[in-house]
Amino acid sequence: MNRWRWLRSIAPLPVAAAAGAVAASLLGDQMLYVVMSARPDAWGLSAAAVGVLLSVNRFVRLASNPLAAVAVNRWGWRGPFAAAMALAVAVTLVYGWATAFWVLLLARLGWGIAWSALRLGGQWTVLDAATDDNRGLLMGSYSAITRLGGLGGAVLGGVLSDAIGHEWTLTIFAIVIGLAGVSWYRATRELAATDPIPVSASAARGGLGEVLRDVRLLAVSVSGLLVGLVFAGVIGASLGFLLREQYGEEISLGSAIIGVASFTGLLIGLRGLLNIVTAPLAGALSDRFGRIRGTTVALLVAGLGTAALALTSSIWLLVIVIIVTFAASTAALVQLQTAAGDLARPDRRAAVLSTYATFQDLGAAIGPLVGLSWGSLGALQAILLVCAALLIATAIAFRRVMQRAPSTIASVRG
Q: What is the pTM of this model?
């Protein structure tokens, strides 16, 4: 009984159900990053076409995030969330059985739109279930559960595709997404009464204005943009290039020799595992010690780690640096996301959260263009050092802004 009480304290049923549904929805998307990028010929695509497909869903979210806020404010969060789950089932089936580029492109655009609604609905569920004392913990737990879906899509997607083909693998994933959606719907039926009171479309779209008027929200959003740019963008896209240029096609770890592609995959997988552990811990610590202190430390560690990533030549030290830096980036994102929820007025919650997500998506979308725009190791190292300096400067600016600006939320002060 105590065990169940403990589990409910870190992930109440509505939070666990929403997080489980969002995690399932990620299965097909994350599988594409592994299987489609490795075997574009299975879909009859060129490498360039795959690049477009794997990035277009991020760019469309720049438009669909504010539209999701309008939908949530007009119809409540459950309706758009349910529609997005149905759309996730459909696009996952299209991934499996379509080979025409334009059909796949429409599916990826559809996924970007669905993700905007799923992410907003999931965060709304957390904020409804949370108090000032546990908001960080619940946001961290939600993040950890959703990361399981990404990890499962990458690992199981690759294994099952080799065994039964990508068509049937994605069909199985579509069925899992559908079942997760039904489970979520049944678990959250009693929450229909907590849907937001409808507001005007202009208020729902006013998230950017709200962010620009509140210097604290602007600090949170710009910090999210930078973390997304550096980690989801620059480092995520260029890690394999960095390893290959610095250590060659094969990496020696004592007596073991590992191909650079396999080693990169292991490090990306390790990042997923770190997220699962780090997110709830970082959230709980921010509840106790304050979001300002926790976010500042996380940004500083992430900045120093990024600089070390550019400068180190030891493979063992590089592994340690990557572990610490990835953990710090996860801690920063969880606390920034929670701080956005802390600062958003109830009638502007959807607009503010969608605007914060747009800042982060913009960073993640531009990051690969920055990280892969130079074809030499020296240029990439210089870019990483610039990113490190920006992260450190952001940490200092974030702390000053948040401490000087008035705040009525104790957990944000820290």
A: 0.84
**Averaged over 277-303, what is the pLDDT?**
92
Q: Compute how many other C-beta atoms are within 10 angstroms of the C-beta atom of residue 46.
A: 12
Query: CB of 110 within 8 A of CB of 87?
Result: yes
**Tokens 């949530």 appear where?**
72
What is the predicted pLDDT for the residue at 171? Answer: 97
Give, rounded to a whole angstrom, the gap between the first and last alpha carbons of the chain: 34
pLDDT at residue 408, as a whole number: 44
Q: Look at residues 114, 152, 171, 185 and name the one whose alpha carbon lies nearest to residue 24.
A: 152
Integer CA distances (angstroms), 315 to 43, 230, 243, 319, in order: 36, 21, 9, 6
* Beta bridge pairs of residue 259: 250
| pLDDT attached to residue 296 | 96
Cβ atoms of 299 and 399 closer than 8 Å: no
Residue 172 C-alpha from the chain's centroid:
24
CA–CA distance from 412 to each of 86, 87, 94, 341 (Å)? 36, 36, 43, 10
H-helix or E-strand spanning residue 316? helix 315-343
Q: With CA atoms as reference, report the closest residue to 26 among 144, 118, 153.
A: 153
17-49 pLDDT tens trace = 999 999 999 999 988 887 887 788 889 988 778
Structural domains of the chain, ranges and CATH numbers in brackets: 12-200 (1.20.1250.20), 206-414 (1.20.1250.20)
Share of the chain above pLDDT 70, in %: 89
